[in-house]
Amino acid sequence: xxxxxxxxxxxxxxxxxxxxxxxxxxxxxxxxxxxxxxxxxxxxxxxxxxxxxxxxxxxxxxxxxxxxxxxxxxxxxxxxxxxxxxxxxxxxxxxxxxxxxxxxxxxxxxxxx
Length: 113
What we know:
- The chain contains 3 helices and 6 strands; from the N terminus they run E-H-E-E-H-E-E-E-H.
- The protein is an alpha+beta fold and 113 residues long.
- The model has no long low-confidence stretch (mean pLDDT 91).
């Protein structure tokens, strides 16, 4: 994960995507067991994120963290969970006319404000 990461939530990520602050560029899913990787489409990621958010009490069961550097945002999902057998890395682009502060205000977890 390199740079210092900050915590966020699936809900905050979904809000930033739905408010057109960020656009999914690429998604890589890596197995923790054999390190096999696969790429999924941004549409598939968005659909899966929506489905995850509709899962009720399970919607906060994965860890989400991020790094933000200039106009590039990277989200790391499932890296800290021993119950998740995949690590998901999502590369996103910060859309034009979106300030870093506005984006970070949406991404911040409520308990870190």
